[in-house]
Specification:
about 15% strand, 11 helices, Rossmann fold, binds S-adenosylmethionine, alpha/beta
């Protein structure tokens, strides 16, 4: 991270928060997740990091975080290494429909890592509902959001995130969650926040990347959960409150959580209910 008078001034501020709006973002469940997190552990691993709400809340000193989304992981890297260049680049964007579609159409292969991160944050802040969705060819395909004043350049938070990522030992990986989970050792804390099993075909949002997270993937994940628990890891998971999920984790403590659905533009469809569960492999 480059240092300047501006840095010193900005370093005195806020705690880091997620820098993207993310489908399945955990902001509203945070208190419950924190309540159920182990009190002490070695490394924190989050194999489906997304916006990283729990990591930013706990601010562990040693982490391994990963996601299948390459643009997201590149952005974490750039925020750590080049936050000032990133801020300069973010300043160049405009919240204009024509500009948005031109930016959306850009092929990321031709861009530098800073330009890719800048495009990613710009699209996230200005697209419809802050979703990240790709078509079958792997291109971002969410329409323009028509927000009046999106916070494209959130300087204070990006500096706070960069500072945290520089001050702690964080490894970023762009890979399938199984490979990250396999890195966990006895005494580590692993938090799994996978794409949720939808209550019905349209009731939830599971299409984060090129391929969907299937029922088979949910089963594969539950097997990995048990394996890590047997290894002596502290394993925590969130998912939707569905009979199938409860059956998969019936050998563990399951806590039903009241939540509001996050990704829905229609306020009246954001009802409260016991939509989610937390599964825990340990007692605190
Ligand atoms: C529910 S979101 C995580 C939300 C996150 N906890 C937050 O606070 O924003 C699920 C994440 O899993 C990622 N993902 C989907 N399939 C994956 C896979 N097979 N391996 C690793 N990550 C995956 C998606 O890109 C998405 O970021």
């Amino acid at each position: 991270m480059r240092n300047s008078a501006k840095t010193v001034q900005l370093e005195l501020i806020a705690s880091p928060k997620p820098f993207v709006k993310w489908a399945g973002g955990k902001r509203q469940l945070l208190d419950r997740l924190i309540e159920h997190a182990p009190r002490s552990y070695n490394t924190y691993l989050e194999p489906f990091i997304g916006g990283g709400a729990l990591m930013f809340a706990l601010m562990p000193s040693k982490c391994i975080i990963s996601d299948i989304n390459a643009e997201l992981i590149n952005t974490y890297n750039v925020i750590r290494e080049d936050v000032y260049e990133l801020l300069d680049s973010l300043e160049q964007h405009t919240n204009d429909e024509k500009y948005f579609y031109a930016m959306r159409a850009r092929n990321t292969i031709a861009l530098t890592s800073v330009e890719r991160a800048s495009r990613f944050i710009y699209l996230n802040k200005t697209c419809f509902n802050g979703l990240y969705r790709e078509n079958s060819k792997g291109f971002f395909n969410v329409p323009f959001g028509r927000y009046e004043n999106p916070n494209i350049v959130d300087t204070e938070n990006l500096i706070a995130v960069s500072k945290y990522l520089n001050d702690s030992d964080v490894q970023f990986l762009n890979q399938d969650y199984i490979r990250t989970a396999d890195m966990a050792k006895k005494g580590d804390f692993v938090y799994f926040d996978p794409p949720y099993l939808p209550a019905s075909k349209t009731a939830s949002f599971t299409k984060y990347a090129k391929s969907d997270f299937t029922v088979k993937d949910q089963e594969r994940l539950s097997i990995k959960f048990s394996e890590l628990a047997n290894r002596g890891c502290y394993v925590l998971l969130s998912n939707s409150n569905m009979p199938f999920i409860k059956e998969l984790y019936k050998d563990f403590e399951i806590i039903e959580i009241e939540a509001t659905r996050a990704i829905n533009c229609k306020a009246e469809k954001r009802g409260k209910g016991m939509y989610e569960v937390i599964v825990k492999s340990y007692y605190i």
